[in-house]
Amino acid sequence: MKKIYLICSLAVFLGIAGGISYFLIRDANASIPKDVTLINQNGDKYNFGKDNTKLKLIEFIYTHCPDVCPTTTQKMVELKKDLIKKGVYGKDIEFITITIDPYRDTPEILQKYRQGFGINNDNAWVFLTGEKQNIKKDQKEIRKVTDALQFQYKDPGNGQFVHSTFTYLVDENNKFIAKFPMGKEFNKQEVYDKIIDKIE
Fold first, then answer.
1. Residue 46 CA to chain centroid, in angstroms?
2. Which residues of 31-129 form beta strands (DSSP E)?
């Protein structure tokens, strides 16, 4: 009986280890397609293949989110101050906020959202949505990014999205580097250290 228990325990352990390895390998190979084009808060097109000179810290939000999304944005505002002091913000790293609710989050709404956090006259932090001409096309473009980074989200029908709670750091070529928890679990120092490590 004890032998069977040990065998079962070992099988469970190997299964968990294998699962963890799978996700680590999958994350390591993740890369955002360079043909993805979205619209920024000014109504201008943003293409993920245009700039291959900077790291990108990516957060996914929707402006009607009551908690984790605005908390993450605020923590990124604080992180930005540290990166400015280091002299790398805008030069070696840019921030990207992508809405998962392009139907409601127009460029104008995103503009107001960012202004609410004091993010003004900042070309190194873009807020992205769809073109509004074709909502299915918009969702498809956004899904290219979320699928590449394994960020999950769904609207259950009441406008309050259920979604993953991670932010992502990608390199100059949009390849996955690391992911960090959103909301209160977003560790500003951890993210800062990872960014600086990759830059230096």
1. 16
2. 37-40, 45-47, 55-61, 93-99, 125-129
> Which residue in the block uniquely carries the two structure tokens 């769904």?
154
* 35-48 average pLDDT score: 94
| CA neighbor of 59 nearest in space, from 18, 119, 3 | 119
Q: Would you tell me how many other CB atoms lie within 10 Å of the CB of residue 26? A: 11
Please state the pTM of the whole predicted model.
0.84
| Burial environment of residue 187 by CB neighbours within 10 A (0 to 12, 13 to 18, 19 or more) | middle
CA dihedral over 84, 85, 87, 92, signed as positive or negative: negative
Dihedral (CA of 159, 118, 130, 104) sign: positive
pLDDT of res. 119: 96
